[in-house]
């Protein structure tokens, strides 16, 4: 029987005019060594246009795997394995934007991975008053951004997320707010703040705006928290301060 692996593969290219998708390099190793695909197996492929299609392993060579659109007999399909990414396509929620004040770099990798798995639409690393000094605009840091993009791809493949998570280059808070305001959608922004000065709780704000929210913004501080000047700026731009009356969580 034919095996269907429901863990989606994020393709960098569309199939050619013959409907074939040729895969080499690291993606080849992922499909062959991690997912252990064989000729005839079927996998869900997320194309660059975000269409999700079933594709079948047509040819497997030493350094190349070729997929084609599914041609198998459905009566011969075996038990599915992994997350069914197609079922997640039907979930329609507001966009979620994470404004993450840069923590130490090793923590940022984990934040990006788990945010992607949760279905965050856009991740904006913010260089803030108290941000870690680990980041600067040197060559090594642009390589780090490439690494972050790779983490996003791996997390989407692992979780089956239908959300095309995008990660921006690190920017100052003022630039991040400008990006937030560029597209005039029905926005609702929150700042997670350790001081108990919140005027409303998260539930009352969402209830007031129920069925009117297109995009939710969440601002999270780094290890040093958020400065008073940054809080004043965020409040001025319409973000709601939120305080959870429990233990203070890590960045």
Structure report:
- The structure is a single chain.
- With about 250 residues, the chain is α/β, with parallel strands linked by helices.
- It is about 30% helix and about 25% strand.
- It has helices at about 25-35, 85-90, 105-120, 140-160, 175-180, 200-210, 230-235, and strands spanning about 5-10, 20-25, 40-45, 50-60, 65-70, 95-100, 120-125, 165, 170, 185-190, 215-220, 240.
- Strands 6, 7, 8, 9, 10, 11 and 12 form a 7-stranded parallel β-sheet that branches. Strands 1-3-4-5-2 form a 5-stranded mixed β-sheet.
- Helix 3 (about 105-120) runs parallel beside helix 4 (about 140-160).
Write a concise keyword list for the protein shown above:
single chain; elongated; alpha/beta; 25% strand; 5-stranded mixed beta sheet; 251 residues
Major pleated sheet: 7 strands, parallel
Terminal CA distance reads 47 Å
Number of strands: 12
Structural class by secondary-structure content: alpha/beta
Topology, element by element:
Blueprint (H helix, E strand, L loop, with lengths): L3 E7 L9 E4 L1 H10 L7 E5 L5 E9 L4 E5 L15 H4 L6 E7 L3 H14 L3 E6 L11 H21 L6 E2 L3 E2 H10 L4 E6 L9 H7 L6 E6 L7 H9 L3 E3 L9
Parallel strand pairs: 1-3, 6-7, 6-11, 7-8, 7-9, 10-11, 10-12
Antiparallel strand pairs: 2-5, 3-4, 4-5
Helix pairs in contact: 3-4
């Amino acid at each position: 029987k034919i095996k269907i692996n429901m863990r989606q593969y994020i393709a960098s290219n569309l199939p050619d005019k013959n409907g074939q998708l040729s895969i080499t390099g690291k993606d080849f190793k992922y499909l062959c060594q991690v997912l252990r695909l064989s000729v005839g197996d079927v996998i869900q492929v997320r194309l660059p246009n975000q269409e999700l299609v079933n594709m079948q392993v047509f040819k497997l060579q030493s350094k190349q795997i070729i997929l084609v659109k599914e041609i198998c007999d459905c009566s011969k399909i075996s038990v599915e394995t992994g997350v069914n990414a197609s079922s997640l396509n039907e979930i329609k929620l507001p966009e979620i934007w994470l404004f993450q004040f840069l923590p130490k770099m090793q923590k940022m990798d984990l934040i990006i991975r788990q945010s992607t798995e949760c279905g965050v639409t856009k991740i904006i690393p913010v260089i803030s008053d108290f941000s870690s000094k680990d980041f600067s605009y040197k060559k090594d840091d642009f390589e780090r951004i490439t690494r972050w993009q790779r983490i996003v791809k791996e997390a989407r493949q692992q979780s089956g997320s239908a959300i095309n998570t995008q990660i921006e280059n690190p920017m100052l808070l003022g630039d991040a707010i400008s990006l937030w305001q560029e597209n005039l959608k029905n926005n609702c922004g929150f700042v997670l703040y350790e001081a108990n000065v919140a005027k409303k709780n998260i539930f009352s704000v969402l209830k007031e705006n129920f069925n009117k929210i297109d995009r939710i913004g969440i601002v999270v501080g780094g290890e040093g928290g958020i400065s008073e000047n940054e809080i004043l700026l965020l409040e001025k731009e319409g973000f709601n301060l939120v305080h959870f009356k429990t233990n203070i969580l890590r960045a």
